[in-house]
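The protein record filed here.
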Amino acid sequence: SDINKSDLARYVCHRKAILDFLQKTLSLQYGGKYSREDRVHRIIFPRGKTSDEVPFDSHNLWLIDEKLVYHTFLASDKPIRTNPLIETDSRKEPDLLVFDKVFDKACAFSPGSDPPFPAIFIVEFKRPMRNDYDERDNPFVQVRQYITDLRSGKAKTLTGRDIPLPDGIPFYCFIVADITPSLEQQAYDFEL
């Protein structure tokens, strides 16, 4: 129908505008410098917020992965220890920590032994065109430390009940950065 065509056109135009804005943000800025990582971060999801605070249409998680849009819980620049789905003492703050949504079972009738999420996503943003990574500031090590801290904690159900975090729970990690020589070197060193 004409209404559906109009809705689709508006949806495509909106996404195109977001992509154009992101491209402009990633480009060299006035003064000869690139934008800070927080500008890219804010385009995708507001900093210091959770998915409980941000309306569905106020983020652009689809820029990273369409699956991230449908999640159980998301925390942006919040200490891991403040997350309601994990009990840990970690003070580390991933840029985005996303708990995947369970689609394949009715959670209201589950026995409570399975975690309320089948996977965990970690997103780490880095400044566009950054080329000064070293051993102390390796984003691959940084993401691995987040995983270690999360694995050492206990999971909680949405109602606050403790449950063990399964050993085999998958972690999907995204490092949003330009591939520069120093980042390539850190990736190579991390693989060794």
